[in-house]
From TrEMBL:
Residue ranges of domain RecF/RecN/SMC N-terminal in the record: 2-507
Keyword DNA repair: yes
GO terms, biological process: DNA recombination; DNA repair; SOS response
UniProt keyword annotations, A-Z: ATP-binding, Coiled coil, DNA damage, DNA repair, Nucleotide-binding
Organism: Tenacibaculum jejuense
GO cellular component: bacterial nucleoid
Name of the featured protein: DNA repair protein RecN
Length: 550
């Protein structure tokens, strides 16, 4: 519920603070006194667009702050989803700066207007004349019927199933489209796949082949260099091995004289062992290296195939070719296995559809059961509101199409007169009739679902006498289930409120401002008497006012 509203520097308001109560609260005041300003301020704090015309004084910022008690609304998930701190007493603040920029906060966390607009629908329902157009909206009509049918959990389950169903249908559609596209390219893709499959390249093969090719192309130079190396190391007179043998013998003779000579001998021996090993490898390599034209041709052919495929697929490495190979394999397999994949996907869809149909049937049955009760309650309330001959024709027709809230089409028709033809609400009901129908609907909804705070903006326009008493009774009963705020010109309605606020204008130093105050019991008597008889309050008006309040 709306607990507090603070307004500063907005329209004709300098500064005011209001504490609201549970149940039915009344706001009265003369035409033009500023009642609509309060609605504007509420709209602004809950996400409506703002500009500098909202500021009373263009040199200072406008601040509107609303405190809501959220204990009964189960909004923790909404706050978590939008990264907001949840508080049972949540404060929403909106600031419009002199520069024209706007800022908004929920529990001191900055938010955008989209967040506020989403939150608004969960907190405040402002009912004005144009809102009666909702009555002709099929989704709204369903929401009325589903509230009485207690379908909220079933519809939530249905929507989860429908989301899954739509995802699967979308996947099936994509599979079929891909199958059609890939079928057209199947032969070409298969050719490319087979080509790479037969080539059977390994990840590091290119580097190895190119190294082997380099050796075979330079085999003569390699042979000459290896032969020279053998001569240098093994020559009888000046070969490195013979010279090292001489060196080793010379130092060995003195190695026993000191640790230093012994170390030198050990180092020379190590070098000799290493040189002997090198010579052995050179000799082995020299024996192995030989010109092999068959191998040269084989490697050349293999590399030419590789280079050709790389150019064809516009890549530079074997690894990239292997990625393309895997992609082609997937495309070929998807075509070859498409029928099985599509069949399995259709089976998934059928299984979900079966469950969805089952839930939709339960929803339909609950709706059909609730229709007589809804019809009876609406017709009774409208009879109380001066429409004794008003009747409804309400029916659900199951369809094969999956709607957002079930598998039904809804016929919601109205007749205001005895023996009259039924028609759509927007075509056969007048503005005054629509207002009374909407009030009846809100009354029914307030007893069957947790509505947000509702504000009735002069719903009593065009009615008087006993009908206004009945409107007041309905609002008062709604106040037992929720917070109701009524802006009214009728004393019968004003007298029913738990609390009563008056909007008024005052002029100070030639500047007009709007103000609001909560009336005491005595002030309420005077206000209602004035609503009955005008500025010149008569004794009978005061007596009547007291009777209404009592």
């Amino acid at each position: 519920m709306l607990a507090k509203l603070f307004i500063q520097n907005y329209a004709l308001i300098d500064k005011l603070s209001i504490d609201f109560t549970e149940g039915l609260s009344i706001i009265t005041g003369e035409t033009g006194s500023g009642k609509s300003i309060l609605l504007g301020a509420l709209g602004l704090v809950l996400g409506n667009r703002a500009d500098l015309s909202s500021l009373k004084n263009n040199d200072t910022k406008c601040i509107i702050e609303a405190e809501f008690n959220l204990a009964a609304y189960k909004l923790e998930r909404f706050f978590s989803k939008n990264d907001l701190d949840y508080e049972e007493n949540t404060i929403i603040r909106r600031e419009i700066l002199p520069s024209g920029k706007s800022r908004a906060f929920v529990n001191d966390t900055p938010v955008n207007l989209s967040n506020l607009s989403q939150l608004k629908s969960k907190l405040i329902d402002i009912h004005s004349q144009h809102q009666t157009l909702q009555l002709s909206d099929v989704d709204f009509q369903f929401s009325i019927l589903d509230a009485l049918a207690k379908n909220d959990k079933k519809i939530a389950s249905y929507k989860r199933g429908l989301k899954q169903y739509n995802v699967l249908v979308s996947e099936l559609k994509k599979l079929k489209e891909n199958q059609q596209q890939e079928q057209q390219q199947y032969e070409y893709n298969l050719h490319l796949f087979k080509e790479l499959e037969e080539a059977d390249f390994k990840s590091n093969e290119q580097d190895e082949l190119e190294k082997k090719l380099d050796v075979l192309n330079n085999v003569e130079d390699i042979k000459v260099s290896l032969s020279e190396a053998i001569q240098i190391t093994t020559g009888e007179e000046f070969g490195v091995q013979n010279l090292l043998n001489s060196l080793e013998n010379s130092i060995q003779k003195i190695s026993g004289f000191s640790k230093e000579y012994e170390t030198l001998h050990q180092r020379i021996t190590s070098v000799k062992i290493e040189i002997d090993d090198i010579v052995t490898e050179i000799e082995n390599s020299n024996e192995i290296v030989e010109f092999n034209p068959v191998e040269l041709e084989t490697i050349n052919d293999r590399l030419q195939l590789l280079y050709s495929l790389q150019k064809k697929h516009q890549v530079a490495t074997i690894d990239e070719l292997l990625v393309i190979y895997e992609g082609l394999a997937e495309k070929v397999n998807s075509v070859e296995n498409a029928s099985e994949i599509i069949t399995n996907k259709q089976k998934e869809i059928d299984e979900v559809a079966e469950k969805l149909d089952s839930v939709a049937k339960l929803i339909t049955e609950a709706r059909e059961k609730a229709i007589p009760k809804l019809k009876k309650e609406l017709e009774f309330l409208l009879s109380e509101l001066g429409m004794p001959n008003a009747t409804f024709s309400i029916a659900v027709q199951p369809t094969e199409k999956y709607q957002s809230n079930g598998k039904d089409e809804l016929q919601f028709l109205f007749s205001a007169n005895k023996g009259g033809n039924y028609g759509e609400l927007k075509k056969v009901a007048s503005g005054g009739e629509l207002s009374r129908i909407m009030l009846s609907v809100k009354k029914i909804l307030s007893q069957n679902t947790k509505l947000p705070t509702i504000i009735f903006d002069e719903i009593d326009t065009g009615v008087s006498g006993e009908v206004s008493n009945k409107i007041a009774d309905i609002m008062q009963k709604m106040g037992n289930y929720m917070q109701v705020i009524a802006i009214t010109h009728l004393p019968q309605i004003a007298s029913k409120g738990i609390s009563h606020f008056k909007v008024y204008k005052e002029e100070v130093d030639g500047i007009t401002s709007s103000n609001l105050k909560q009336l005491t019991k005595e002030e309420r008597i005077v206000e209602i008497a004035e609503m009955l008889s005008g500025k010149d309050i008569s004794d009978s008006a005061l007596i009547h006012a007291k009777e209404l309040l009592n």
